[in-house]
């Protein structure tokens, strides 16, 4: 559980881990150079408890996770961010599934959003096709520590994020499968500002990051060249139709603005927003 200035939320995250029906759990918190006084005070409370507290010098999430995983003694790993929550049966169900089939290397689930936005996290259901196009697996998933070792852990050179996407593709390259539990067992907190929102605000950074991920997995994308070409074509067609619908909607709105009463309603609505 990496933590950087998340003292406001971390006790909720810890309680969700402590409430698991699977009891054989080692909880490792990595204080990644927190500067917030409340966070430091909160984390200091866990010294000399059953929780292992490590400290790193603001190395960012990938390196902080790697530090915790390297210290872990368990067979399986599940990263849980300090501001998120897992449901009580998540680990038990994930362990049962990963132990049922040696081909399975990663287990995750459906997820809900909470905080600044609520509802189902509308990620596509897992498929290899979806995964080749974009990351559909969140980092709070169960995997083997030995697989983490085989692929060299999370890449710490990915400054803007998406190291979990790169990591899952590396697991797939080990000829392992990813299994999605069709049940909401994870809750992802939405905050006004996060690394994800910053990442998605810059198109050039997004393009560079995805290009880097593609270049880091040449054998995988070569293996699925034909499938990937079809996926990209379908995604492009979807974007063309979505853009057309957006432009048509804007054109209709412009026409409605010319009607006096509707113009007044739209103006009042915009002022309220």
TrEMBL record:
Domain spans labelled Glycosyltransferase 2-like: 1-126
InterPro entries: Glyco_trans_2-like, Glycosyltransf_2, Nucleotide-diphossugar_trans
Superkingdom assignment: Bacteria
Keyword annotations from UniProtKB, A to Z: Transferase
Record GO terms (molecular function): transferase activity
Entry keyword annotation includes Transferase: yes
Protein name: Glycosyl transferase family 2
Organism annotation: Paenibacillus etheri
